[in-house]
């Protein structure tokens, strides 16, 4: 009996600590704040952008799903389209040191420049702090926060989980659907979807 109790307690503790490590944010609740230094050496925190829409985009340059959306110009186009309207776009690389996709600032900056991308800032999250905080699972994985600080969408960039560039034309883009609805005072009809892509290399 004592042994059973001990095993049960260890199992519960394991689940609790696992939950703390792999937090999962909830749509339509307040998005957790975090501080970061971007690849240009500038310090920020999410709370700096209260009053603005914010897109968090998990990416990893070597992932074929990420390449699909960058090589086609899809994500760079979205970045330019919405940052021009005042949206803050943060591209986050949570690849750990020694794992696929972990690069120094100058390499990530060049990747974005070569693709014609225009995020507000690029974040290297090599220790996985932000990725674990949000429960980021794939690259890409999208989170959208409204000016009140509420998470209004999390999940896939679109509804077509493939690496085929041609599929972008017929896919339903959840970033466009969410931002266009929310920025025009309309309800966001889909607040959570299952993301697709490469696993985040924590």
Task: Please give a handful of descriptors for the protein shown.
Glutaredoxin; disordered N terminus; single chain; two-stranded antiparallel ribbon; 6 helices; 202 residues; alpha/beta; globular; 5-stranded mixed beta sheet
How would you explain this protein's 3D organization?
The protein is an alpha/beta fold and 202 residues long. It has one domain: 3-Layer(aba) Sandwich (Glutaredoxin). The protein is 32% helix and 17% strand. The protein is built from six helices and nine strands, in the order αβββααβαβαβββαβ. The strands form three sheets. The chain has a five-stranded mixed beta sheet, covered by helices on one side. Strands 1-2 form a two-stranded antiparallel sheet. The protein is globular. The N and C termini lie far apart (38 Å).
């Amino acid at each position: 009996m004592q042994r059973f109790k001990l095993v049960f307690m260890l199992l519960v503790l394991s689940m609790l600590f696992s939950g703390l490590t792999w937090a999962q944010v909830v749509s339509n609740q307040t998005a957790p704040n975090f501080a970061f230094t971007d690849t240009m050496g500038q310090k920020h925190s999410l709370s700096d952008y209260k009053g603005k829409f914010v897109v968090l985009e998990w990416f990893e340059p070597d992932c074929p799903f990420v390449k699909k959306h960058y090589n086609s110009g899809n994500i760079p186009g979205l970045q330019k389209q919405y940052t021009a309207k005042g949206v803050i776009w943060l591209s986050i690389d949570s690849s750990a040191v020694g794992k696929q996709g972990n690069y120094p600032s100058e390499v990530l900056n060049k990747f974005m420049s070569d693709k014609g991308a225009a995020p507000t800032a690029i974040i290297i999250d090599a220790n996985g702090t932000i990725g674990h905080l949000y429960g980021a699972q794939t690259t890409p994985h999208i989170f959208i926060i409204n000016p009140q600080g509420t998470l209004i969408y999390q999940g896939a960039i679109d509804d077509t989980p493939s690496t085929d560039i041609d599929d972008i034309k017929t896919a339903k883009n959840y970033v466009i659907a969410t931002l266009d609805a929310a920025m025009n005072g309309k309800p966001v009809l889909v607040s959570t979807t299952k993301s697709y892509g490469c696993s985040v290399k924590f």
